[in-house]
Amino acid sequence: MYIITLKGRIDPQKSGIIMVVKKEIVVKNSTGLHARPAAYFVQIANKYESEVTIVKDDQEVNGKSIMGILMLAAEKGARVTIVADGDDAEDAVKELSEVLVKDIESELDGVDRQR
Question: Which of 3, 12, 32, 54 has an alpha carbon within 20 to 30 A of 88's alpha carbon?
Fold first, then answer.
């Protein structure tokens, strides 16, 4: 389930209200959100113009920063909230949440073996 809120500010370059989308996720990757999964998350987040933030407990970090994500120390089973703020926020949250709810580590291992 997504929580979509419309912010009260107007983007001066585009006529419309900027959308903020939030989704709470339980990290299912076997190694949590560390090293390669974090790098993959950042790679996906950077495809989008929206600002991306990840919240765990009382920590809030930039979802486009590998160092920020690693500081969360989000292990398997951790609850995190992905927040995206911008025109493509809904698409960003959808794709990024898919990264966290599947065991991306095993998929990345398969890519490494093919090289």
Answer: 32
